[in-house]
Design goal:
Number of strands: 15
Shape: globular
Strand content: 25-35%
Distance between the termini: 69 Å
Oligomer: single chain
Largest sheet: 8 strands, antiparallel
């Protein structure tokens, strides 16, 4: 009878452990949203120049010193004129200056789709505070299939854009972002979450969306205490995405 009780208890422990593991680490597909397809719109042609109070983060090779790889090394991405292009396998870059609440303008361009494979078409991202990701992706006309909260203009794995305002590949696009950083209490618990408003090619695609926490690929996001200001980060994801005219206003 003891052996029977022991076997039953062991079975319950293993079953319970399996259930807990399943709850804490769901499959990556569990957070992929295919429910509502954002309608297509055609953006106008216009690019914004920095205001008098803006901090210019990149407008040519002279600004490379404002950036570094995550290990603190010099940037290895390719510079041409006022552009900087990801070199695959070199890892992400981040600003040396730290930011909290900001208005951010950034222009980006995806490469020829023939360069990339599978679901890695023009794949990159702008990570506010290095944690909260606005996705960059080749999403023109839905020629590349991906879950809607992973397409261009999404808060990755959290919010799909209101509309798909993507231009054609190899064409310059703009993000204008208003980011409100999360606020933590003295005991390091969350006081107020982060919020993000985004214009993609001058079209509102995210309207003061509450963020659920930092970007996470598998599982569900949750807030953990961090500094009030952290570096801006650009993601290297094996695609030769280019950037230019990056500037920010502290709010």
């Amino acid at each position: 009878m003891k052996n029977l009780h022991f076997a039953t208890s062991l079975c319950l422990v293993l079953t319970t452990s399996g259930a807990i593991f399943s709850q804490t680490l769901p499959p990556a597909s569990a957070t992929e949203d295919w429910s509502v397809k954002p309608p297509l719109v055609t953006p106008a042609e216009n690019y914004a120049q920095p205001s008098s109070d803006a901090i210019v983060l990149y407008n040519g090779a002279q600004d490379l010193g404002k950036w570094e790889h995550l290990d603190g090394s010099n940037v290895k991405w390719q510079t041409t004129g006022n552009e900087i292009t990801i070199v695959p396998k070199t890892t992400d870059i981040r600003t040396k200056q730290k930011f909290g609440n900001v208005q951010l303008h950034i222009e980006w361009k995806t490469p020829d789709p023939k360069e990339d494979k599978d679901m890695n078409r023009g794949n990159s991202g702008v990570l506010l505070m290095g944690l909260y990701e606005l996705q960059i992706y080749e999403s023109y006309n839905y020629d590349t299939r991906i879950y809607y909260n992973g397409q261009a203009g999404s808060v990755y794995k959290q919010h799909a854009p209101l509309v798909n305002a993507a231009r054609k590949p190899q064409t310059w696009q703009t993000y204008d972002i208003v980011f409100e950083a999360p606020v933590f209490n003295a005991d390091k618990t969350l006081k107020t979450p982060a919020f993000m408003t985004v214009f993609h090619n001058n079209i509102l695609i995210l309207n003061h969306e509450e963020l659920k926490g930092p970007m996470i690929y598998q599982g569900y996001p949750k807030y953990e205490y961090h500094e009030a200001k952290l570096p801006l980060r650009l993601q290297e994801h094996n695609s030769r995405v280019s950037f230019r005219n990056i500037w920010v206003r502290e709010l």
